[in-house]
Amino acid sequence: MEREVAAGNHLTVGDLLKDLKERLRLELVAGRNALDRPVTHSEVNRPGLSLTGYLEHFRAERIQIIGRGEQAYCAKADPKALFSSLSRMLSYSNLPCLVLTRNENVPVVLSKACRKYNVPLLRTRLDTATFVGELTAFLEDRLASIERVHGVLVDVYGLGVLIQGDSGIGKSECALELLKRGHILVADDVVEIKKRRGGVLVGSCPESLRHYMEVRGLGILDVKLIFGIGAILDRTRIELSVYLEMWRESTMTTYERAGLENRTTKVLGVDIPLVRIPVSPGRNLAILIEVAALNQRLRSQGVFSALTFNQKLIERMKKTKP
């Protein structure tokens, strides 16, 4: 199984300002020379008590949000005491920046402290809740752990199925058959997988390969032009992994027959259900993957067909036992 773990995404306050300036109505107030400070966490922090000088459990590594409550305190606090507290806060070298919400007037003490300690101070016109929601979603996407794997990702009945196997086993041909049966292609050859909050794995295709497939004997195919816009999808949640391998008599007994065993594979530290399908002439892999996807949807709802059948069989054996 070929895998490549990508290096962590590098994001700076300058990148943040450039990418979100229009979308989140951001402007730079102070700290222009410190825009190269790195942003490493998707969570944000409301300083609250830290403005009073209480810095225990202060999450300096996060973007600091100065909302309505913090702004009200800054307006009423003693300037010297507030500047002292801000000095201690801003002395953390891993603090990315401060963001003032609701387009309020910037407290003089706050801008003075940011300039002295060379910390970027931004301001947004959005209210705090809206800004935090949008910013967190952006940071989760940009800073998510990424792993690139060799395979095909297809959305089958709304379930993201990652198809892998040895080179030449027929992954792309199987995906083509699934497309003909009305399912949707996400990625061929290279699948980029991001880990989201809650252990959710989302797969997509690198921009340069998006909606293209390579099939031996046919070459490069444009799926969007051949099958239509409805046959492609930018991303999908990966909920099932299918591994195709050549049928070998010597390993025939290792394949699942009853379906009682719950096999998994680990991607970015997350276990996802795994189905190993032996490939031999005459087997319709597309139909097998369709059924595997439907069966996995049932399992996710607590319905285990093999287990139910096994229990019924055991009960019948008990009844017929002399």
In brief, what are we looking at here?
The chain contains 9 helices and 15 strands.
Write the layout of secondary structure elements.
Layout: E1 3-5, H1 13-20, E2 26-30, E3 44-45, E4 63-66, H2 68-76, H3 79-90, E5 98-100, H4 108-116, E6 121-124, H5 128-143, E7 145-156, E8 159-165, H6 171-180, E9 184-196, E10 200-204, E11 212-215, E12 219-222, H7 223-227, E13 235-246, E14 264-267, E15 270-279, H8 285-300, H9 305-320
Parallel strand pairs: 3-4, 4-5, 5-6, 8-13, 13-15
Antiparallel strand pairs: 1-7, 2-6, 7-8, 7-9, 9-10, 10-13, 11-12, 14-15
Q: What does this 3D model show about the protein?
A:
This protein is an alpha/beta fold. The protein folds into 2 domains: 7-142, Udp-n-acetylmuramoylalanyl-d-glutamate--2,6- Diaminopimelate Ligase, Chain: A, domain 1 (3-Layer(aba) Sandwich); 144-251 and 263-298, 3-Layer(aba) Sandwich (Rossmann fold), CATH 3.40.50. Helix content is 31%, strand content 29%. The chain has 9 helices and 15 strands. The protein has helices at 13-20, 68-76, 79-90, 108-116, 128-143, 171-180, 223-227, 285-300, 305-320; strands at 3-5, 26-30, 44-45, 63-66, 98-100, 121-124, 145-156, 159-165, 184-196, 200-204, 212-215, 219-222, 235-246, 264-267, 270-279. The chain has a 5-stranded mixed β-barrel. β14 (264-267) and β15 form a beta hairpin. α3 (79-90) runs parallel beside α4 and α6 (171-180) crosses α8 (285-300). The longest helix is centred in the middle third of the chain and has 16 residues, at 128-143. The radius of gyration is 27 Å and the shape is elongated.
